[in-house]
Design brief:
By secondary structure, the protein is α/β, with parallel strands linked by helices. It has helices spanning about 5-15, 20-30, 35-40, 50-65, 70, 95-105, 120-130, 145-160, 200-205, 205-210, 215-225, 245-255, and strands at about 75, 80-85, 110-115, 140-145, 165-170, 180-185, 230-240, 260-265, 270-280. It has a seven-stranded mixed beta sheet, with helices on both faces.
């Protein structure tokens, strides 16, 4: 007898009460192309044998603890469908705020680096939105420390018809000079690992998550290197952990005295982003 979305959801929750109902809704709804409201409207509809087979296959992966975005093979970021696999970080909605800030400062003809690009989500959103603002002739670069991330980013750049030069690099070593550097680097403290979602720990790459004991390993290297990799009037935009502002402020004041540094809170009111540029 064909099953409905409601029946499949109830079966999964009965088997494993730790699975989040919203994850079930998300995977099932995305597969069928439903918005959340459409999902509720169709929750009692019987699925075709083909759709039921796919749903049961997806739910089996969800039971195994695989993240919904990795099951689907994509995540949404700034309205763009970004291909993801287990070798890259799943882009977060919070990072959209970093992109929005960068868009307030972007100019035509500039040379831009997405540092630690992962899936390439930041670069895709930044450039496609910049194009809507009439920004043209950007010279685009993306770097990462892993081959798997570079391969995935290249798939997304191809998907969105972006001409991006990719480079394998540890922070900025071996890279050129740029007008803008943007990055969502690893910043989670090792002591905070036990506070994280189990799905994140099990699925997402450690290299994209953890920033050492205090979360600042990347920023120390970046602060020592960035002056050699920014053109005059160059600027950078970085995301960081909400508890790290004071340490970063001290670090940048010490290492980057020739830079104007500005911090910004996210929509939840927590300090999460920093912008630096050469003093005039």
């Amino acid at each position: 007898m064909p099953k409905s979305l409601k029946k499949i959801k109830e079966t999964v929750l009965n088997d494993n009460s730790e699975i989040r109902p919203e994850d079930i809704d998300y995977v099932l709804g995305e597969r069928l192309g439903y918005t959340p409201s459409e999902f509720e409207l169709h929750i009692n509809d019987e699925l075709t044998p083909e759709k039921e087979k796919q749903a049961l296959k997806d739910m089996k992966k969800l039971r195994r603890g695989i993240s919904p975005q990795y099951i689907l093979g994509y995540a949404w970021f700034y309205g763009y469908k970004i291909l993801v696999n287990r070798g890259v970080l799943i882009p977060r909605f919070e990072t959209e705020e970093l992109v929005k800030w960068a868009l307030e400062n972007i100019e035509s003809g500039k040379k831009i680096l997405d540092l630690g690009t992962g899936s390439g989500a930041i670069m895709v959103a930044l450039v496609k939105q910049a194009q809507k603002q009439g920004i043209q002739n950007l010279n685009l670069y993306a770097s990462d420390i892993t081959d798997s991330a570079l391969r995935e980013s290249e798939e997304n750049f191809l998907k969105y018809d972006l001409d991006v030069k990719t480079r394998k690099a540890n922070v900025l070593v071996g890279l050129e000079k740029f007008d803008m550097i943007i990055s969502n680097p690893p910043y989670i403290k090792m002591s905070e690992k036990n506070l994280m979602d189990e799905n994140v720990i099990k699925n997402e790459p450690d290299t994209a998550l953890y920033g050492g004991e205090d979360g600042l390993d990347f920023y120390r290297k970046f602060a020592k290197q960035v002056q050699s990799h920014l053109n005059p009037q160059g600027q950078f935009f970085l995301e960081f952990g909400f508890s790290e502002k004071e340490q970063l402020k001290e670090l940048f004041e010490t290492e980057l005295p020739d830079f104007e540094i500005e911090f910004r809170d996210d929509l939840a009111g927590k300090p999460r982003m920093v912008h630096g540029r050469w003093k005039k």
